[in-house]
Amino acid sequence: MNDRLPSGAAEPDHGQGPFRTWDGHPVSQEPPHGAMIVVYRCRGGAAEFLLLHRRHHGPDYMGDWAWGPPSGARYPGEAIERCAARELEEETQLRLRPQSVAGGSAEWPVFVAEVPAETAISLSPEHDRFVWLPLPDAAALVAPATVRESFLAVAQRLAGCK
User: Fold this and answer.
1) Which among 67, 35, 34 has a CA at the least distance from the CA of 148?
2) Kind of pairing between the strands at 34-43 and 110-114
3) Which pTM does this prediction carry?
4) CATH of domain 31-155
5) Which residues, in sequence order, are bridge partners of residue 38?
6) What residue segments make up the domains of the chain, in order of their start?
7) Is 102 buried (19+), middle (13-18) or exposed (0-12) by CB count in 10 A?
């Protein structure tokens, strides 16, 4: 499995080729290929982070790509800001304008979105469950390591929210 792409990215083991998503949608061949959105809420003076569990390997799968923040591929010609907003809405039904932040890469930039504590999440068919977790617990679930590193680079700056 490709260790360089976040959740929702092109994965050759799905038989769609290197520039298709797991469900066959086209992925931009030019960077950025997609975006990660770190979604957080403040509770009790600390941030909790939204992680989604991908359905396609089954509910018990805990390996690479099982848990991660909302993420997804950029379509050819799509602005990266539009990609981040579209993926967030597709995967969670949250209609927000995520803000670009330092911490990702040229291939997969990272965005952030803060939501009120009581915000409802409605999952897409790609995911079977979600959790809100404090940073140490969230970081322990996010895999592979390259995705965790990008997640942590941003999430660590948000952990002390008020």
Assistant:
1) 67
2) parallel
3) 0.85
4) 3.90.79.10
5) 112
6) 31-155
7) exposed
